[in-house]
């Protein structure tokens, strides 16, 4: 297959074409099925197809084993939560011992879970008792203070009454004695309740009590300064101690219900001072005992979690692997004899030997009497796309895949994107000072990539780290284009030679080139530093960057069309070569290729011709003389020829292809193409043309409309895409002007005040503006514009991007997956 697709039409680059794929069938005995799938997972080069898609997960062969692994995974997550709360980190797996038995793991996990649950339950009970005793102690203190102060007040009042009675008239004493001789059975006895109520509910609590008992209560509250842990919720809360005096059982029942509704915790309390002191001593002693017990329990739990942490990663990896294996086994179909499993999947052609070796090892290691059968199937189904990338090319491939995954063995844009993407970014970002800042930042990521790759980074940092080699290329190209623009934080430096121009007299320093005369050879590399700060700087750089943008755009669009030629040759489609590639090249280059040539001629000759006038009147008045806008002899004849060819190219793209495809379809149905079935090398050739639908019904109108849309899109896109490349000029100009403004209006202005404080402030503002605006926002802006130029202007010339990724069964990422 590799030979049939090689064709010699493309450079022999690994990334140009996706790997040749094959549909394979594996027949595995039941006794070696588990080990076979495990070895294939270690290999990571087979993408299994689900042959049981009509069955629900519960109807599949290994549903019970998956449920069992799921239960073990739940226990592991339970351990992980408790380890994270306790601050225990799982130890890394130093020796990759994966030969532990799953049954042993299951038993061990069950024992450890039962022990941990029991420890937690005991600890919760002890903690609840401890919190209750803390609240009880607070009630004893606050209520005791209230009763003590009330007792002192009552004693003082009684003494005052007695002293008054001794001094009163003797005649009144019989009346008072008679008044006191009331029946003791008719006296009212008051009861009381003590407890704690949340502070935010205390006012409402008091008001509800008052209304419910119609004012027949007396309540006192005392604020607790520190927060206490609520025994029921286990959360810290601010509370008040309350004492409620009531009369009668009916009032008591109402108060109890209100306490329950407000979450108020009630505690018993004695009026006797001796009993209060005794209770305080008992509570203090029990608190000390509970604190010691809880501390010992936590130590025991931490020891248990440390024990779990030693084997946590190993168990986690084992359970995840087993679950992945059984999920894969469920994708295999059971043979009619129920003695073997049949699996189908995609694999790269180069992996055939490795897969067969894995199957053989699995049969030997599982002591199976029958080996596995491996065979390649022939199919017309579209294979997945697989590119072998490294850490440098991966990020560029992901940029392309974000637009769409390449169709099987379609030309891959990332081969050239590795260079063109950072280069177009640098055209917009050209400043070698800013480029050095980007280079230093990305070198930090590259030099510490081993350490950073094992850490969990934030979303933005993770994105920057993943694209570190893209940023490296962007920074290097930015330094290169910055040297061409001769800008270092907007300051020009004569690095390669002195300026070619000098002032004729001292008056020419007023930012004008009129007084400049050329005294040396042309500046050897980039823009002459003398242009900076002159009146002609902006018109000169505008003209230079605008024309340069058109040249780069036309060159990249031509590259895209040339890639479509390679695709057509690779898939042996002569129709696409003669009726798509050729007319597209003619149309684009007769108009905008011609404009690019005029730009180069104007640069080389120093002509004053107006290229806008030339291109506009090439269409409006092609027969008129060019006059002073003529750049070379016979230019009018050349323009008429190019205009005629561009007009002819439009029907050339539109009309022949649908009719040829219709004719080819009719020829296939007359039996002229069935001979291909005997060619084994063509077993996986994918039909890519719009009209090659095999035995499906051919809709000529649909094909014609599709070709019409494609032609209109290309003709209009040739104009709009060329104009779109002018963003290179616009963003380059914006970056340069912003950098110049920050330098002149911030740094130089602060320097002019001759004040050290203002200078420091100016330097800080300049640094933050440079980093925040030019190195972050401008970098992101130039990145997105370069991305658009590749996705739209470049890739739409040849890239279909309607394939799907090769997603093999592998254990590589199993340990890092989050369920």
From TrEMBL:
Pfam families: V_ATPase_I
Keyword Ion transport among UniProt keywords: yes
Statement: the UniProt record of this protein carries the keyword Transmembrane: yes
Family per record: Belongs to the V-ATPase 116 kDa subunit family.
Primary localization class, coarse: membrane
BP-aspect Gene Ontology terms: vacuolar acidification
InterPro entries to which the protein is assigned, alphabetical: V-ATPase_116kDa_su, V-type_ATPase_116kDa_su_euka
Coiled-coil region list: 95-129
Species, as recorded: Arabis nemorensis
Function description: Essential component of the vacuolar proton pump (V-ATPase), a multimeric enzyme that catalyzes the translocation of protons across the membranes. Required for assembly and activity of the V-ATPase.
GO molecular function, a single term: ATPase binding
Keywords associated with the record: Coiled coil, Hydrogen ion transport, Ion transport, Membrane, Transmembrane, Transmembrane helix, Transport
CC per GO annotation: vacuolar proton-transporting V-type ATPase, V0 domain
Membrane topology designation: Multi-pass membrane protein
TM segment ranges: 423-447, 468-485, 548-566, 578-601, 637-655, 756-777
Cell compartment(s), UniProt: Membrane
Descriptive protein name: V-type proton ATPase subunit a
């Amino acid at each position: 297959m590799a030979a049939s697709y090689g064709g010699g039409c493309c450079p022999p680059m690994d990334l140009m074409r996706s790997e040749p794929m094959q549909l394979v069938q594996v027949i595995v005995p039941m006794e070696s099925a588990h080990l076979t799938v495990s070895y294939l997972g270690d290999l990571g080069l087979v993408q299994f197809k689900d042959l049981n898609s009509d069955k629900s997960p519960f109807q599949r062969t290994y549903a019970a084993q998956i449920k069992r692994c799921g239960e073990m995974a739940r226990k592991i997550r339970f351990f992980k939560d408790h380890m994270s709360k306790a601050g225990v980190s799982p130890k890394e797996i130093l020796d990759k011992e994966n030969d532990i038995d799953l049954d042993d793991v299951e038993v061990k996990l069950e024992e450890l879970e039962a022990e941990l649950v029991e420890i937690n339950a005991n600890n919760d009970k002890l903690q609840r008792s401890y919190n209750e005793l803390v609240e009880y102690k607070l009630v004893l203190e606050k209520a005791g203070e209230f009763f003590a102060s009330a007792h002192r007040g009552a004693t003082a009042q009684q003494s005052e009454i007695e002293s008054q009675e001794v001094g009163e008239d003797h005649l009144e004493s019989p009346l008072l004695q008679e008044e006191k001789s009331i029946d003791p059975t008719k006296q009212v006895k008051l009861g009381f309740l003590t407890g704690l109520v949340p502070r935010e509910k205390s006012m409402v609590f008091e008001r509800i009590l008052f209304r419910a008992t119609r004012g027949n209560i007396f309540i006192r509250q005392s604020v607790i300064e520190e927060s206490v842990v609520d025994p029921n919720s286990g959360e810290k809360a601010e509370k008040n101690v309350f004492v409620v005096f009531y009369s009668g059982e009916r009032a008591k029942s109402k108060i109890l219900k209100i306490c329950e509704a407000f979450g108020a915790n009630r505690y018993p309390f004695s009026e006797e001072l001796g009993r209060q002191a005794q209770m305080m001593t008992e509570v203090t002693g029990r608190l000390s005992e509970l604190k010691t017990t809880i501390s010992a329990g936590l130590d025991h739990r931490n020891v248990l979690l440390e024990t779990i942490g030693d084997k946590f990663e190993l168990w986690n990896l084992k359970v995840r692997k087993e679950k992945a294996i059984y999920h894969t086994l469920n994708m295999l179909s059971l043979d009619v004899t129920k003695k073997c499993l049949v699996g189908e999947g995609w694999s790269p052609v180069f992996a055939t030997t490795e897969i067969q070796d894995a199957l053989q090892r699995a049969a030997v290691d599982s002591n199976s009497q029958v080996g596995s059968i491996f065979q390649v199937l022939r199919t017309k189904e579209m294979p997945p796309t697989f590119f072998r990338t490294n850490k440098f090319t991966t990020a560029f491939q992901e940029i392309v895949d974000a637009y769409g995954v390449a169709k099987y063995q379609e030309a891959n844009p990332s081969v050239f994107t590795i260079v063109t993407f950072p280069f177009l970014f640098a055209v917009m970002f050209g400043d070698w000072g800013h480029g050095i800042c980007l280079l230093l930042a990305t070198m930090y990521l590259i030099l510490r990539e081993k350490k950073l790759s094992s850490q969990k980074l934030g979303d933005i940092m993770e994105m920057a780290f993943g694209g570190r080699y893209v940023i490296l290329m962007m920074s290097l190209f930015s330094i290169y284009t910055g040297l061409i623009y001769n800008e270092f934080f907007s300051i020009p430096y004569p690095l390669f030679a002195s300026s070619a121009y000098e002032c004729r007299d001292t008056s020419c320093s007023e930012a004008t080139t009129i007084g400049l005369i050329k005294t040396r050879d042309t500046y050897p590399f980039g823009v002459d530093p003398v242009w900076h700060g002159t009146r002609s700087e902006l018109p000169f750089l505008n003209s230079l960057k605008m024309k340069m943008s058109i040249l780069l755009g036309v060159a990249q669009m031509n590259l895209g069309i040339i890639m479509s030629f390679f695709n057509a040759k690779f898939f042996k489609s002569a129709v696409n070569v003669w009726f798509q590639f050729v007319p597209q090249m003619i149309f684009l280059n007769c108009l905008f290729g011609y404009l690019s040539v005029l730009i180069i001629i104007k640069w080389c000759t120093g002509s004053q011709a107006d290229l806008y006038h030339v291109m506009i009147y090439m269409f409006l008045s092609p027969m008129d003389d060019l006059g002073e806008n003529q750049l070379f002899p016979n230019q009018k004849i050349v323009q008429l020829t190019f205009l005629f060819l561009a007009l002819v190219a439009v029907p050339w793209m539109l009309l022949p292809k649908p009719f040829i495809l219709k004719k080819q379809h009719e020829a296939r149905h007359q039996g002229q193409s069935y001979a291909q079935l005997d060619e084994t090398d063509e077993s996986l050739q994918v039909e890519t043309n719009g009209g090659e639908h095999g035995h499906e019904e051919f809709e000529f109108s649909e094909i014609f409309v599709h070709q019409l849309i494609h032609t209109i899109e290309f003709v209009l896109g040739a104009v709009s895409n060329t104009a779109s490349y002018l963003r290179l000029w616009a963003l380059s100009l914006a970056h340069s002007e912003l950098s110049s403004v920050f330098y002149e209006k911030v740094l130089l202005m602060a320097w002019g005040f001759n004040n050290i404080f203002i200078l420091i402030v100016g330097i800080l503002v300049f640094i933050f503006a440079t980093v925040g605006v030019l190195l972050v926002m401008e970098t992101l802006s130039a990145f997105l514009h370069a991305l658009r130029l590749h996705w739209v202007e470049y890739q739409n010339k040849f890239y279909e991007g309607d394939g799907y990724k090769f997603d093999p069964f592998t254990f590589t990422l199993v340990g890092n997956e989050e369920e």
